[in-house]
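Sample entry (189 residues):
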Amino acid sequence: MTAAQSHTGRLLVATALLTDPNFTRAVVLLLDHDEEGALGVVLNHPTPIEVGAVLDGWGGLVGQPPVVFQGGPVALDSALGLGVAPGEPAQGQPLGWRRVHGAIGLVDLEAPPEVLAGELGGMRIFAGYAGWSPGQLESELASGAWYLVDAEPGDISSPEPERLWRAVLRRQRGPLALLATYPDDPTLN
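Predicted structure, serialized as tokens:
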């Protein structure tokens, strides 16, 4: 796979064909996609667990709602931090933050939180992640399980994560925007 074929930094938006409860109406940010597979986090599945209750010092740095999000069904006992660092890539990057794509990067949760205070424009903590073996994501895309669209930095810290699926579809051009009105249960339509 060449870098031009990589979907790192893009969003996967679940289609109606995807019935796995882990991914129903999910919006997944791809953090890595290459010939070895893909890894991402679900951006719109908040849990009731407050970040401050599980990670000392990080609660005040995350956006609203200040809860842990379920990033996917893999490794639910691990935490992953994402944040947006304003500025151009050529300007360097804050300590404790590694650029993934554009202004979005991974946060080193082992670093002292005060190192990143004021450096990030938006931050989320995820328990677990979504993963695909080599060729699996490409197969799911070909079967119509996902829409592949561009991400915006504000997607990771949307203050209304329950509306993110519709919002991402609505901003697309053409027929994809119409799918934002697709009912949760089409049999009740």
